[in-house]
Amino acid sequence: MIEELVCWFIKLFTGARAQWTVGFDQLQPGQRVYFANHSSHLDFLILWATLPPALRHHTRPVAARDYWARSRPRLWLSRKIFRAILIERKNISRCNNPIDQLKASLEQGDSLIIFPEGTRSSGDTIHNFKSGLYHLARHCPQAHFIPVYLENLNRVLPKGEFIPLPLICSVIFGAPLRDVSERSKDDFLNEAKKSLERLNPL
Amino acid sequence: MPVLSIDSELGAIIVGVVLLLSIASIIGYVLAQRTQSDKSKAVIDNLNARIRAWWFMVLFFGLAVLSGNTGSIILFALISFLALREFITLTPTSRGDHRTLFWAFFIITPLHYFLIWIHWYGLFSILIPVYAALVMPIRNATTGDTKDFLARTAKVQWALMVCVYFVSYAPALLTLKIPGYEGQNAKLLLFLVLVVQMSDVLQYVWGKLTGKRKIVPQLSPNKTVEGFIGGVLSASLLGGALCWMTPFNFWQATLLAFLICLMGFFGGLVMSGIKRDRNIKDFGTLIQGHGGILDRIDSICFSAPLFFHLVRFYFAL
């Protein structure tokens, strides 16, 4: 109920629209890892809100613990509404390795939203991807890796601003990456980044 | 203030519009049954999408007008907000504009409509052309971002003028005091919107049926001389025929309608200029078949101020 209201408000405010370049009825069933460019705090919200409800219920955003665990309301939001998976960005050891968390979640049947750049960019270019996406693909080759280009979000809420503007943005879903398990690390990360850049309509 | 006030004239116009739309829907249905070729099918599909959208627009507009002045003002404030959103989305702005745009969306636009709501004509008429024009560049300058400073400032100011200031002259008609026409200004607003929108529709119909010579092909490939003349003249006559709902006599209504249609046409042309410059076909996708909200209100933007001032000068106290 709260979830539907939150999504409705987000879509009304930003006029965000999902565009599926591959009809999502043609996509094979199974767990998905949506990976997107990152330029705004709203990114995962918009991506999550524009997913069809049936998919959304099984999709969990992956977010930084150091940001989301900083205050009680944030922690509550991330836990109860978005069901986010909070991962460590610093001080990673064998016992809190994010990949294990993500893998466990995928194995439970969830899909994930990931921002492989690791941090927000200015929105003009996509940074090189961190290797986490590759390690995830190696551990979970059965998941479909779907590039999602978020357009105009860097203008809605750029880095350093705290009041969003009501501008219209698009969420463009691409075709899943192929031959995930056969590629080398650099090859995979490059291809993943390129698949995202190709979705940029400009 | 009456919540729902329908006098017999208002009732007649509602019945008329519903009748007209019903006929259009029937024609659209018959045409859809008859067409075979793919090319004409696309045109007919678009026509039917437009007619369907018209039903919704008429419903929204009708409910707003019938709910009284406050309802109309809220509706137009919402239209301005959505139009501004489309305009700014398609206008390249930079990081430095973020706070300035916040002012445009969340302070100036609501304040402007608030002034109409409290009937403060003196401040309403200068808020955006004078005070927004002063405040926005100041806000922009204080960010320290000087790249394309003049162009950026001009874009935001122009967006406010078109999407908020010009459009708001339509609901501002509700604030006029016309002797012998008290409490009936909603019909004046209805007259303006009906004539402008019928002019667009009739230009489209005349153009599709008889159009040959393109009027400004670089700007708008669909506008033809035949559509322009036929549409403007027939919509002007329609305006004259609607004089019974206005404080004007037949000739005054026809002349005013003619001027409205003319400005509406040029409004469409100017907005096409922006679209061609930005390399887009429509401002948005909000209204099925029509494009964005700006595509639908471009003619009102340009005709509302002229109509308001003419009525205010010649008919109001």
UniProtKB/TrEMBL annotation, chain A:
**Do you know which InterPro entries this protein is assigned to?**
Plipid/glycerol_acylTrfase
On the tree of life, the source organism's domain of life is: Bacteria
Please name the Pfam families in this protein's record.
Acyltransferase (PF01553)
**What is its pathway?**
Lipid metabolism
Q: Name one GO molecular function term.
A: acyltransferase activity
Where's the Phospholipid/glycerol acyltransferase domain? Answer: 32-153
Q: Which SMART domains match?
A: PlsC
Q: Which UniProt keywords apply?
A: Acyltransferase, Transferase
Protein name per UniProt: Lysophospholipid acyltransferase family protein
Automatic annotation (TrEMBL), chain B:
Which residues are listed as membrane-spanning? 12-32, 53-82, 102-135, 156-176, 188-206, 227-247, 253-274
Keywords recorded for this protein, A-Z: Membrane, Nucleotidyltransferase, Transferase, Transmembrane, Transmembrane helix
Q: Key word 4Fe-4S present in the record?
A: no
Could you give a GO molecular-function term held by this entry?
nucleotidyltransferase activity
Presence of the UniProt keyword Transmembrane helix in the record = yes
Q: What name is this protein filed under?
A: Phosphatidate cytidylyltransferase
This protein's species is: Thalassobacterium sedimentorum
